[in-house]
Specification:
alpha+beta, four-stranded antiparallel sheet, about 35% helix
């Protein structure tokens, strides 16, 4: 039975590998007419589950119950940023999704708070 479950899991993983490659995370460069190069960057998450069962028939004169297996997978690709290359300089341009939780909102506020504390010192 373990070889059959391994076969199911290996087949699932090989299909996921076909879907996801390095170009999914860091996309192909896009050239704009004014000479700016944009390279998309994405966050890829995936999960999968596999399982199987090999039933045994308690009666010795009966045929054994057959093996059954199943697997499932899910993949999510979220764009998170673009690498912008212009005039020999590269910078990250983040695609900010809305904050989902209080912790996310607090993390988003940290740069603003730091800037407010730096501002009085910088103006002196």
């Amino acid at each position: 039975m373990s070889n059959q479950i391994s076969d199911v899991m290996n087949e699932t993983m090989s299909k996921i590998k076909e879907l996801i490659d390095v170009n999914t995370v860091v996309g192909n460069p896009i050239e704009t007419p004014d000479g700016v190069t944009l390279i998309p960057v994405s966050r890829v998450t995936f999960g999968f589950a596999s399982g199987g069962s090999d039933g045994k028939n308690p009666a010795p004169d009966k045929a054994p119950v057959r093996f059954g297996a199943g697997s499932g997978a899910g993949v999510t690709v979220n764009p998170v940023a673009f690498i912008v290359i212009s005039n020999g300089n590269a910078r990250m341009l983040y695609v900010d999704p809305p904050a989902n939780s209080t912790v996310d909102r607090l993390i988003d506020l940290v740069p603003d708070v730091i800037d407010k504390f730096k501002s009085p010192k910088d103006s002196e």
